[in-house]
Amino acid sequence: MRPTRRRTWALLAASAVAVALVAPIGISVVGRIGAGASAPAGPTPDPSGAECRTTVQGSQVVAYCHNPYPSIDRVQLHTECGRWWDIDADGIPVDVAPGRTVRLDDRCWKEVASAWVTHRRI
What superkingdom does the record give (predicted)? Predict the structure, then answer.
């Protein structure tokens, strides 16, 4: 092979390597510019909702819900009993004012299968 052919192949290989290294950077920059211009960022929702800790001991369910946010949160305890003949229960909704803690409780005749708290912002 002549020296000019080797040099040509070396230049072609170096060019291909340079394009392969630079192309992802160019695509990334173009993607960032296009993404920023096409859609403005939407408003972030205010944090809300009480934090609830639920414990089950035997057939008793107790949930403590604390609301650290400035909006009122309505919480409700739901209990699913383990036995087919035991009635599942939904507690009454309770409003948790800002900075307050409420206690929710319920029970089954026998064991508790599951218990959870639902939230609704007022």
Answer: Bacteria
- In this structure, the strands spanning 94-96 and 51-57 are unpaired
- On whether the pTM is more than 0.90, the answer is no
**What would the pLDDT profile of 73-94 be if each residue is shown by its tens digit?**
999 999 999 999 988 889 999 9
Question: Can you give the pLDDT at residue 104?
Answer: 97
CA dihedral 93, 97, 100, 105 (to 10 degrees): 0
